[in-house]
Amino acid sequence: MDFKVKIIDVEAGLNVVVIDNDDAKKLDVGLGDRVKLKSGNRETVALVDLARDAKVGEILFFKDTAEKLGAKNGDSVGAESVKRPASLDFIRKKLDAGILSDAEVKAIITDLMNEELSAAELTAFIAAVYTRGLNSEEVVSLTNAIYETGDHLEFKNGAVVSEHSIGGVAGDRVSMLLVAIISSLGIKMPKTCTRAISSASGTADTLEVLCPVSLSMDEIRKVVAKTNGCLVWGGAVNMAVADDKLIKIRHPLRLDPEELLLSSILAKKKAEGAQFVLLDIPCGRGAKVDSVEPARVLAHKFQTMGAHLGMQVECIVSDGTEPAMSFIGPVLEARQVLRTLECSSSGLLAEKACLMCGIILHMVRGISKEEGYRIARHQLSSGKALEKFREIIKAQGGNPNIKSSDLKPGEFSVPVKAVSEGRVDHIDNKAISRICRAAGAPADKGAGMELKVCIGQQITEGAELYEIFSSNKERLGFALKQAKLLNVVEVEKIILDTI
Amino acid sequence: MDFKVKIIDVEAGLNVVVIDNDDAKKLDVGLGDRVKLKSGNRETVALVDLARDAKVGEILFFKDTAEKLGAKNGDSVGAESVKRPASLDFIRKKLDAGILSDAEVKAIITDLMNEELSAAELTAFIAAVYTRGLNSEEVVSLTNAIYETGDHLEFKNGAVVSEHSIGGVAGDRVSMLLVAIISSLGIKMPKTCTRAISSASGTADTLEVLCPVSLSMDEIRKVVAKTNGCLVWGGAVNMAVADDKLIKIRHPLRLDPEELLLSSILAKKKAEGAQFVLLDIPCGRGAKVDSVEPARVLAHKFQTMGAHLGMQVECIVSDGTEPAMSFIGPVLEARQVLRTLECSSSGLLAEKACLMCGIILHMVRGISKEEGYRIARHQLSSGKALEKFREIIKAQGGNPNIKSSDLKPGEFSVPVKAVSEGRVDHIDNKAISRICRAAGAPADKGAGMELKVCIGQQITEGAELYEIFSSNKERLGFALKQAKLLNVVEVEKIILDTI
User: Fold this and answer.
1) ipTM score here?
2) Least CA distance to B249: which residue of chain A?
3) Which CATH topology does B161-236+256-395 take?
4) A365 pLDDT higher than 70
5) Measured distance CA(B203)–CA(A87) in Å, rounded
6) Contact B127 A122 (CB under 8 A)
7) How far is A17 from chain B (nearest CA, A)?
């Protein structure tokens, strides 16, 4: 059947066409069925949407489909109904608790990449994995399939290291220190990092205060060749592309099946060319994993899967109950990382970085973790890590001479004070994220928070608990409103309730 | 934040707005998050879509949203981020195998009706029900919630009866006979029926050959007041509206969780005002239920749920392995039903109808099923059922004087012959549907098939197995192509394989 093209001036992010109900009947297709479209020698498969208001004989294209077919307004295109892709049967098989073969997993990811599956169909896949699980073979298949959807780095000589935290801890910028220390020792560490989804800042958002983070694969190769390290935003490169698509699908229902977490992380590490991977699993109240035992189980899975994929994986289970440092938000975090490298601050983050470097050096060089820790400490205190960090900033296009004292948070700020006295019992990562985001982070680089207390500290009524920063007075007001609703700093209660 | 409205001239069937990436960051919303829109004194909640090509400060509305807000091109509307609806947490709870309360089920259906859930989120709900199941209380909650989303019929005096088949059997037009017989006995039977989704014809498609089937609730009330019966397309009335939306969502992955089947059917029967319901569960090879035992389990569930909902439900398990009659397709089926009522044809369909009437009369009048069967037979043979059927056709706006001999199938036809000899072992409902649809059914009312053989019959090579009809020569060619690929009539094999 031939249709006349009318183009809607919007990208749909998916191959969808809109036709009239009666035309759909003639084609024998219904809502969500597929049609093969032909224009000249180009072809594509699109999902059918129906409209009461479409004209008979007219087919509405969104920009994406028009570009794929090279079709213009008024062009004539052929359409015929085609069978649903086999990948839908494989999604159905997983919903029925079946075991997917390597080819079946690959078919799902291939159709995802070709935009042949709707958001609803992909959600069914995520729900299937969430409720039915994947076995080790399926996770390896999925990881390889995701890995193959993007570019990857390869290095001929020397060890390549990577690190990843499963996240959930505010101010956890340990990767920035790790890359500086490890690459200052002549070991390659090309690290991709993420932007914030629901937190105040991701490593990419924070590093962007100091230098560009959206680099091409070729630029990354050059930076690593020059400095051994890099810290770039994963979203700007074409690595493990399918994973980004899956993350978008998982967002509305916040579905995080463990198997997708495993394959997502491992596919990215493999794409970075890593042979040695250190994984950080923060656990405890408010973290993604709530106690040490399930963290151990997860760690074991990472190691097994990693081995299947040709990577040596070590895991640490860290305390994820409170922020990794007292400063939250892009500028405040960048300043604190610089301060640490400038040796004007020691603190928790430096200690964590050196402990993790100890494990990495144990893997790469076969020395003891304690020896590795001492080497890392030396790189920090001697200023070699700072020197390397400046080199990387310069190679990525930033100003290598920047000092922590150059970095200023938003000009508007307000302190938040304790309304009762007692011992600090809990500091809530999620509440911190919500307040910082209300203040404008991460888009407003100067927005954020400085914590003035830590767990275990005895405070009096009226003591300053934290200070909120923003570049915008109105947003600071929003943040303060949030602060009054949320309990960032929980003071120990002796009497929990009176009845 | 204020935006300038630009309207896209298409109905999206959902509240979706498209904004620029940077604007989304300012609003702190991501893909699939929600914004509350305000224009004058109207408000609505919409899902956010992001576009690389949207202009900063501009918001793209599809027609639906523009109408809801009464907004025009160039208008200014306010937008603010709002929390995700609580129903998403309930969907998530079901994915986690939790038990939903009555209020939680109702919240999901309410948000579905308010178009506040995306197709992907609703698919997650279907997948959750499919993988985790619903207990009896949840099914009752769901049925009531669906029932409450639409209009319903109520009758002050006398018994109200309904019937439903879970489907899958070609040519099963027994409802048309049941309505004629039962209402000829002074018992109310206001029956809604469906159009074909993947079959050659639904009861609504077949009846439409004889009279209009898209009636309003008021028209239905008048037809029933006059004749005791009606046969109308459920899609044209506002009954159990949520169910139609759920069916659309289930279509792409062909997910039919049993609990949705139960609540879908029972909500519609309740909306018809039925006190007595007879359910037909066809079973066997190619049917929706493959053997008698699971059919019995399903029947028991229908009865229990029915009782909770104030309806007496009886079930029959029928033979669903072959078509209910030899004529398939709207005109051919309508002709055969008329022939049966005109007493010029007895056959399987009449027998099934009288057996089912026996059970209905047993429920309504307390007489034995055998006595009920004899009464039904009498209504058929005396012509009283035909008279009632003509009355209903007239009341619905059709020609009451139509005769079976007035009905002609498509002018083009082709016979399909046996390529080997043997005993007929199986006649395949799905293959029949595909061939009839290729021939143009149900849009082409004259398209269809006449079967010339039945199970158990001994056939010789070259014997005519069936004839395909179409109003369009090209479509007949398509159908013949399908016929060569599919095996409608399977002949018994003595040697299954030689190795």
Assistant:
1) 0.81
2) A120
3) Pyrimidine Nucleoside Phosphorylase; Chain A, domain 2 (3.40.1030)
4) yes
5) 33
6) no
7) 11
